[in-house]
Amino acid sequence: MTNIVLRSSVVLLAFGGLTVPAVRAAEDTVPSFKSRGDMEKKFVASVAKAILKAAHPTGLEPTMEKYAYEEVKKGRTKLTIQGTYKGAATRKVYKAEIIVHLDTADKDSWEVLRIEFNDNNNIPYSRKRVDDLIKQLNRKE
């Protein structure tokens, strides 16, 4: 009887472990500025989460606090995002300011030109990962 319970527990753990990566992959999808749609706040929150994860991959609970668009000149917009995340080891809350420079000349297909990232963490952010993220944010869907 003990062997049957033990085997079923192992089987449940094995199959249960298979579903975790699929759920995590769904959580980590990177939005595209080419198809941002009408749900603006939710879209900007997912952009903030993607940038915070790229900047500090080990950071926990990345969240958007607030955001604002500013038209710099015709066809150019600056998206300023205030966000927070927690350090993996210390669980300290870090504040981040993200500035996304956008080419908005085509109202249906915006393009990210560059991303500026600044936070109060002593550990430097990953500039390379943030720059690589720009390609994903600009992909067509």
As a whole number of angstroms, the C-alpha radius of gyration is 19 Å
Largest sheet: 4 strands, antiparallel
Give the strand order, joined by hyphens, for the main sheet.
Answer: 1-2-3-4
Shape: globular
Task: Please supply descriptive tags for the structure shown above.
4 strands, 32% strand, disordered N terminus, Nuclear Transport Factor 2, Chain: A, globular, 3 helices, alpha+beta, 4-stranded antiparallel β-sheet, 141 residues
Q: Can you offer a commentary on this structure?
A:
Mean pLDDT is 82; it is low at 1-27. With 141 residues, this protein is of the alpha+beta class. Strands 1-2-3-4 form a four-stranded antiparallel sheet, covered by helices on one side. A hairpin with a 7-residue loop joins strand 3 (93-103) and strand 4 (111-119). The protein is 38% helix and 32% strand.
Brief summary:
With about 140 residues, the chain is α+β, with helices and mostly antiparallel strands. It is about 40% helix and about 30% strand.
Task: Reconstruct the topology from this structure.
Elements: H1 2-27, H2 40-55, E1 60-73, E2 76-86, E3 93-103, E4 111-119, H3 127-137
Antiparallel strand pairs: 1-2, 2-3, 3-4
Helix pairs in contact: 2-3
